[in-house]
Design brief:
By secondary structure, the chain is α+β, with helices and mostly antiparallel strands. It has two helices and four strands, in the order βααβββ. The chain is elongated, with a radius of gyration of 19 Å.
């Protein structure tokens, strides 16, 4: 089996960029332009942080390339990682080994 070079589809990523940008804009603009109630400002700030994190996650996915080999899965990018299929240890669902 040869290795496969995998990435997220550009159309999906651009749709996520639009969603994240719209959320950041719609939650951040009222905080900058208007004088809003304290509780409403808290809700808008939480939405702003949520959409900003989604934007960062989308950017990480955009810059990550996945290489699927015969015995490994390698994420090549800003937060890269390697998963070996045949390392002699069974994978656990809780992520501890």
């Amino acid at each position: 089996m040869s290795s496969a070079d995998l990435r997220y589809p550009r159309q999906t990523l651009w749709a996520d960029y639009v969603r994240a940008g719209a959320g950041v804009l719609l939650c951040g603009a009222p905080l900058l332009v208007l004088e809003v109630n304290h509780w409403l400002a808290l809700i808008l700030a939480a939405g702003f942080v949520l959409f900003a994190l989604f934007l960062v996650r989308t950017t990480l996915r955009h810059h990550t390339r996945y290489v699927l080999g015969p015995d490994t899965l390698c994420a090549d990018g800003p937060a890269g990682a390697v998963v070996e299929w045949n390392n002699g240890r069974p994978m656990r669902r809780d992520g501890r080994g």
